Amino acid sequence: MSSHPAADQSPTQDELDLLHYKSRIDRPVRIKIPELQRDERLRHVIFSGQFNADMLEELGGTADKIRVLSKIREGQDFLIKLLHHKRAMLYFTQPSTRTFLSFMSACQILGITCNEVRDPTTSSETKGETRFDSIRMFSSYFDLIIMRSKLASLAESCAYLMNDLDETGNRSVPIINAGSGADEHPTQALLDIYTLQRTFQFSDPKDSPVSSRFEELRKDHPDLTRGLSHKVYGFCGDIGRGRTVRSLVSLLTNYSNATIIFIAPDDPTLALKDDLRRRLIDRGVRMFEVDSFEEPIDGIPVIQKLDALYMTRIQKEHNNPSDEQHFAQLDLSRYKLSHDLVSRMKPYAPILHPFPRDQHFGEIPPEIDDDPRAMYFRQARNGMWIRAALLATIFGVDHQISRYYHEEIAHA
Ligand code: CP
Q: Is residue 68 domain-shared with residue 215, that is, in the same domain?
């Protein structure tokens, strides 16, 4: 029993700080977007809803140029000088492999020096410092804070903290949300879109299973077009708790005639959440919710209809005892891929997964990795290029990259 019951029940300063931003957090995303910009340029990256199709095209173009320049010595030397006067703090208090390392690599490509706090027990938070004081301290030493937290609204609140500091003439830096609770993972969605952009160009053999066969493919798939519009996207697995799904689905609504199919158990924890369903309906997106790859849509089993498949892991770490009870009644094996299922997919349809995949559950067994449609390792590498493009955009050097690329590469 605690010796300080009253103190245990009173809100912490962290909770009070979050409460302070509640009225701003509760507004619709479209109202918040201008506050996350400066001079009509991206400043803070908090939601995927901040990006429209033109911005995604621009970012993808910048990422393409960075990847080409990174392959040659002169290009590397040019890139590394661009932001060598900047420093970034990677404040990751939730586990991460890809997001952390790809942001660090992206910083290194552009010459940004990085430092990190990954374990708050090594910081002065153990002495009672609030997260908001920690963040403000980071902004004293660094020019950018990239943060992942289990608290859904922490990154957003920190962006408002920075804006308030700015307005009162204090030092303030951009905030990038690298994963916020079960809510959003906007930069994962950027790399997912970038992977789809490259795949649906049908031009590069490394990025597309059918690069040189586009016209041939149209004999069997006459409606097939280049680009992300007019495609059927499937999301399979733990839809309810997947922040990557929420962020990517929001970006896909930027493309015309995109159909979205959720393949998930009919379970309140794992199925699509009401707020996302409502948003899709409000935006007029053609959407289906099914509980199996075999369920027919327009008379065809889902697995054969998909132009792209996004697999996800069942996020067991978030289970509570009642989830465990529900899940025991479900046949979760339906949400795993198999050779048989993959053999029935369209020959050009990429298989994506934000990773990590779960070796115990096996939603994508390793034997599928050799299939040319398996894009997940490329997808993770694309994270480095698109995050470098995002940093270049935030710091306003994207036009320099474009100019150098056209002068030194395209016209060489
Ligand atoms: N996809 C993703 O966010 O991976 P990490 O958790 O390893 O960063």
A: no
